[in-house]
Amino acid sequence: MLTGMARPSGRRDEILDAFIRSVAERGYERTNFGDIASELGMSKGTIVHHFGTKDQLLRELQERYMRQRLDEAQRILAATDQPADRVAALIYAAVFYQAYHRDEAVAFQREILHLRESPALEDARKLRAEYSALVTGVVRDGMADGTFRPGDANLMALMFYGSVQWMWTWYDPTGRVGPEEIAAQQVDLVMGGLLSDQGRFSLAKRDEISALVQRCLAA
Fold first, then answer.
1. Which parts form a coiled-coil structure per UniProt (predicted)?
2. What's the whole-model pTM score?
């Protein structure tokens, strides 16, 4: 099983992690410096010293999350070469993050509208666009070599986003259905719309992809 990512020590990182937990639990609007300061046993002035504003904390949350997703996606692509394996691995990674890095995933996804609207989040938008282009490129490669059905690569890539973007609203990683089972079901659903030959992605292949993704996320 994956464990949490190691974080650099220091007050600044403590503050950002506490902010992420609060946004995941209560949302951005209900998160405030007073509660974070009380949790960490510091003054609100210390938070202001490190970050200035709550918007700056949100910016760093969004950028850190997307950089991690891109780094993991690049490791996955380096470890695979078939479009179907790559799409499946990206789905597994997205589901595993919901379970093993829950606060970051929920905090990012529940405040996605800020990413669309805030001028301060331009760099985070660029990172998200880069990730979107990576996924779309994998789908396009699969169409080019006949692995996937012909069609609009951008639209088909949305199947991937749609399958994981709102998981935070319904998936309970402590419930009876584990992340590997959820990921396998998501892969089946997405592959059913993508593969030109649906018999090509077996249960054994899913197990292999799951193990590969866990190695990539733990790197």
1. none
2. 0.86
